[in-house]
Amino acid sequence: MDIRAVFREHGLRWTLRRERVYAALAASESHPTADALHELVGRQDRGLSLATVYNTLEALVDHGLARRLSVGGGPQRFDADMSEHAHVTTPDGGIADLPPDLSRAILRSIDGAVLAEVERRLGVRVRGVRVEVEAGRGM
Amino acid sequence: MDIRAVFREHGLRWTLRRERVYAALAASESHPTADALHELVGRQDRGLSLATVYNTLEALVDHGLARRLSVGGGPQRFDADMSEHAHVTTPDGGIADLPPDLSRAILRSIDGAVLAEVERRLGVRVRGVRVEVEAGRGM
DNA sequence: TTTCCTGCAAAAGCTTTGCAAGTAC
DNA sequence: GTACTTGCAAAGCTTTTGCAGGAAA
Question: How many CB atoms lie within 10 A of CB B69?
């Protein structure tokens, strides 16, 4: 599907730079940092500035086309996969998707009634649940 | 219980500064940042440097007396409550504990068999599962 | 006595911002 | 034409580090 159309649907102005950053993010498996994307896209597009990558990522997040992943410590990582899915974090600071079936199994097992109770007691709306499996080294 | 003894049990050298930082962190409900702790403890202990707060927090984390909380964006937050518990994050970047019973209900509902499957397929050891409920504004 | 901790100041890393010029709509 | 985006450079904020002196074990 045309990226231009995706942007338009999300109320985001199209530019060639944004398209490239978004395409690279969507194609990546590794939940890259802004710097990694700058490096990656910059190989084809020499003039791309790091500031534009940051601005683009913020625009993507604001318009619901990407997520910020919270990792303890290091630079921020981004993910263009907006479907509900869980992550695994490794001791060296890496982060990866859990295989889709396991992701689903975990997320489905969380009882909706408990989330409704959270809403009732805290007076908030639950937007989603983030699940991260912390992996230690070896077995 | 004596903080000195807690440190010793965890193989962490005791100093008055560390005791104060740890006590303040343990007493806090708000998952403070390093800067917030520096400000808080610094009211009683004027000479405390921010570098020492950072060093202390790192030592606490390394010795299993505190956790680093990953929040998207802002400065790092810390938590001295090492029991398995879930958090709620608010749209303004805040983070709070879920009420204990709801925490338990969510964490217990995650099927151990699925985690065993994660270990088998990914060849890792599962150290824990982080759960964060994302709260939106109002209801 | 040995090893580690501390404050200070400087450095390093990540992210945001101001501005003038350029581009999407 | 208007409003938003861009690159550049500078600033801002968070975190780490080197070092000389001091404190814990």
Answer: 18
- The verdict on A77 and A87 lying in the same domain is no
Nearest in space to B116 (alpha carbons), one of B108, B107, B126: B126
Paired strand residues for A78: A68
Provide the number of structural domains found in chain A.
2
State the nearest Cα–Cα gap between A9 and chain B, in angstroms: 22
Question: Do residues B7 and B48 both lie within one domain?
Answer: yes
Cβ-defined contact of A110 to B115 (cutoff 8 Å): no
For C6, which residue's CA is nearest its C1'? B52
- Name the pTM for this structure: 0.93
Q: pLDDT per residue over B82-128, tens digit each?
A: 999 999 998 888 899 999 999 999 999 999 999 999 999 999 999 99
Same domain, B33 and B45: yes
B133 contacts in chain A (CB < 8 Å): 115, 118, 126, 128-130
